[in-house]
Amino acid sequence: MFDPKDLMDRLSRADPTYYTLGICEKIASKLDRILELKTERNAVVLAHNYQRPEIFEIADFTGDSLGLSLSAAEVKDADVIVFCGVHFMAETAKVVSPSKKVILPNLQAGCSLADTADAEDVRVRIAELREQYPDLGVVCYVNTTAAVKAQCDACCTSANAVGVIQAMPNDVILYIPDENMAAHAQKRIPEKIIIPWEGNCYVHHEITAESVKHIKEIRPNMKVLVHPECREDVVKLADAALSTSGMIKFAQKSDANEFLAVTECGLSDLLTIEVPDKQFFRACKICRFMKMITLDNIIQTLETLQPEITLPEDVRAGAERSIKRMFELTSPDRLPEALVVS
User: Does the pLDDT value for residue 281 go beyond 90?
Assistant: First the structure.
């Protein structure tokens, strides 16, 4: 049973004006219902770092998209995965847990970045470029559909994109779909030609260097943590360019007491709740897709086991190969059991 007072003490760190005792009483009732349904359905709940604070309370795992999918795959006795994130993330969970039922609580929770790369457009572009560059390698960010992943040589995350591209045997790389991350990698790997797909995450792309500089002027001693999906002029201002999970680890281990998290605002909420002895400031935007999932959605999902995410087997297997190749290129000794072919 969830205690409303305890919830208020935790959640109000993120937003004291919203998470009043009255609101937290309603939240506690819904969390109790979800806890019952999780047991009935033998379900595991995943919450991306950008979700609403109250959803973190019911999650079995909180983190980055691929890490969450791999964590759920390790829960051998679970029958259902409820992914509180966006559509491509739920697809990835299905890729690595094909025998489990994967559910996305709100099908409208898409991703503006993933949507910039249509699978057929990707196929055509790869064919065009390979006429010019026969040795073309194709790397896709995890923020793509399973159908796009299936057409690529290797997948990557924001944490290992540079490492994957460096390890690829090709001198010319098509990077899909984030043009900002392609620019970030090109600066660090000048010996390769990196051709960017024309796409970006609207949340990160709209964060400006001027806004970050302004906050730095007010708080000159704080550490600036920037997501690589931001524009290069913003990344240049960072003390560290990190994935969301990387930002959490950095803040937990750092001797600094003040941090600016330059990414979607949900991460600042999570950091404020989980690391209450430090201060976190924001140069961020709200992702309307990440905030679409609510506790009511999760309750309905667990009651009905809908909407379910399914994939054609050829697409699932192709995407799995792409993800597995990422580990083979950068950390073969850490290949997850879920990706080991029996």
Answer: no
Three-class secondary structure assignment of the chain: CCCHHHHHHHHCCCCCCCCCHHHHHHHHHHHHHHHHHHHHHCEEEEEECCCCHHHHCCCCEEECHHHHHHHHHCCCCCCEEEEECCHHHHHHHHHHCCCCEEECCCCCCCCCCHHHCCHHHHHHHHHHHHHHCCCCEEEEECCCCHHHHCCCCEEECCCCHHHHHHHCCCCEEEEECCHHHHHHHHHHCCCCEEEECCCCCHHHHCCCHHHHHHHHHHCCCCEEEECCCCCHHHHCCCCEECCHHHHHHHHHHCCCCEEEEECCHHHHHHHHHHCCCCEEEECCCCCCCHHHCCHHHHHHHHHHCCCECCCCHHHHHHHHHHHHHHHHHHCHHHCCHHHCCC
Segment 84-110, tens digit of pLDDT: 999 999 999 999 999 999 999 999 999
Domain boundaries, the chain: 4-110+290-304, 114-201+312-339, 207-282
Task: Give the tens place of pLDDT for each residue, 114-128.
Answer: 999 999 999 999 999
Q: Is 207-282 in the same CATH topology as 4-110+290-304? A: yes
Fold exhibited by the domain 4-110+290-304: Rossmann fold (3.40.50)
Enter the pTM of the model.
0.94
Q: Encode pLDDT of 148-207 as tens digits.
A: 999 999 999 999 999 999 999 999 999 999 999 999 999 999 999 999 999 999 999 999
Structure confidence at residue 333 as a pLDDT band (50, 70, 90): confident
Q: Which CATH superfamily is domain 207-282 in?
A: NadA-like (3.40.50.10800)
What does CATH list as the number for 114-201+312-339? 3.40.50.10800
